[in-house]
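Data deposition worksheet. Section B asks for the primary sequence of the deposited chain exactly as it was used as input, without tags or linkers unless they were present during the calculation. Section C holds the resulting structure in token form. Section D is free text for depositor observations; keep each observation to a single sentence. Incomplete worksheets are returned to the depositor.
Section A, Depositor: J.P.
Section B:
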Amino acid sequence: MDIDLSQFTQVFFEESLEGLEVMESELLKLTVPQPDPETINTIFRAAHSIKGGSATFGFNQVAGFTHLLETLLDEIRDGRREMTANHQDMLLLSVDLLRNMLQALMAGQSFESPQQQELENRFNQELSAVAGGENAPDNASQNNEKSAAKVSETKESETKDFGLSWQIDFHAGADILRCGNDPILMFNELAELGELKVSLPAQELPEFEDLDPESCRLYWQLQLDTEAPLERIKEVFEWVEDDCEIHYQQLPAKTQLVEGVSPQEQAPISTSVPASQKPQVAATTAKVESGKAVAKTAETSSIRVSTDKIDMLINMVGELVITQAMLGQIGQQERIDDNALLSLQQGLEQLANHTRDLQESVMQIRMLPISFAFNRFPRLVRDIGQQLGKKVELILKGEETELDKTVMEKIVDPMVHLVRNSLDHGIESPAVRSAKGKPETGRITLNAFHQGGNIVIEITDDGAGLDTGRILAKARDKGLVGTEEELSTEAIQQLIFKPGFSTADSVSDLSGRGVGMDVVRRNIQALSGSVELASTPGKGSRFTIRLPLTLAILDGQLVRVGEHTYVVPLVSIYESLQVESSKVNKLSEEHEVIRLRDEYLPVIRVYQEFNHLAQAKEVKEGLVMVVDNNNQKVGLLVDELLAQQQVVIKSLEDNYAKVPGVSGATILGDGRVALIVDIPGLVTMSGLNQTQEHAA
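Section C:
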């Protein structure tokens, strides 16, 4: 019987990846050598679910590897093996490997890694070693020889006391096969817990012509002699316990030969599955093959939404339907009198209110707590701290602050780089910190909070801070700053965002390649955000990232340039003003600056960059909009300011092509298309960056 399981694979992948996140988080909380039992149980349950699901879908590579983790965890939680730091490292590496396996399956690719064989060897060595002696690698072969000799002697003369004997009556649900579950796989897992006998008692079955090949009418009687507790046995059936009828009965304890009872000694319809044989039985045939049934899932993602948000959305749609019906009745009237006109106006106001509420409800569905992004950093800090020989404490604040899922996915990489930068360049070694009178353990804090219409993410460390003297010297060596030029402290700190700039003395896995902070700033700007830096020598640094809550909606200022309408992000605007000709100074034929209070600001003629015929061709004839460009003020010359409004952002690159100086487009109320200005891109188009660098 063929069962198409491809419709369930996306759910399996999502739940498995969530399970790996749980495992990683709990592993980082472990206290060695006496971990909290509930923590071990949580890790075990996550691994067990991944193993069961992957076996069901025929992902045998994942199932086989996860079985090794499950076995080690089972021994630790039963007290048969003491938890060690080596075990913790192995399990964390296994989480990484399993995540890569699942991502390969989602992309429809085969997975091969030398790390898998290395980890499998480490697990097998640990599991074959005598409990308590696994920390002595030199004695591993000796332990294996002793174990093999002991098993050989036992087979000949000794017996094993399993301790517990259970009778399990397993009445399969009628739909068990339709859901992709295979009883044989469950029996194989039971066999790994001890000595298993599987019997199929006589039972009434329908006539052949009435038989439904997709419906299961069987029930099995199982006898399991084991040392495992009942809770462990029940975990084997946790995938099907809601659909099947299962009864457990404890029998008098038995003593069995390790080799088990031969099949000839049992009833004709009974089979014995010795634990030592570890039978491999293929899962029920399914139309799911590695690399085929899931190429599609790599491009899709989903969001888990609370029922409260769904209910709110349904209520909003209901209100819209009522308003639509009311407006429809008005439209059917043959004559529109004053009363009908008043009702029409009221209906349109209600429609506007309901549409705005519906928009907010839909946007709330896309919002997720930033903890989804923060949760990956404890592992990152732990691993890099060990690599660098530094003691670091990570503090997370504002984890419940919500952010659009799309923004969150794109901000993770810049955040990772900033945290790595704090670990590598900021936090000092324990010896250096002690010499400075600081605690040996450094501190990195991630904090998120809402501010106005933005979300602010702060990455703070209590390390050495930026060495402005060293930064300036490096910048002069690279020709970024003149040999006699003097810069303020803030200007020197901003040099780290220059392309290709690095203060590292050598190239390592973490730094020194000159590709980093400029990419961080560019990626944040691509999200219509900004990054600021504040640093105090000897006390630490703080990076502040400001981002819009969503990339789908933008608060914008509409401006006119000739006959064209553009949208400038409202968050980037400082002020707009008319400038007298006496305050305009020309730097060249193409560039000019205006004097605004105590500052000189460069001006970009937007009509020239976009090749338009404008009404205001000189600064004194139009309006100058002062906007932010990488913490520097720039003036944009436009003809006229129009309305401020929220606009829905449409990707110009997806629907047309990438256009320099433009970050997207929107459709206005009158049906016209307005382009959204990309301020950093517009500055680059104008050549202003090169002019400023030459001036420096």
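Section D:
The first strand starts at residue 160 and ends at 161.
The chain has a mean pLDDT of 80.
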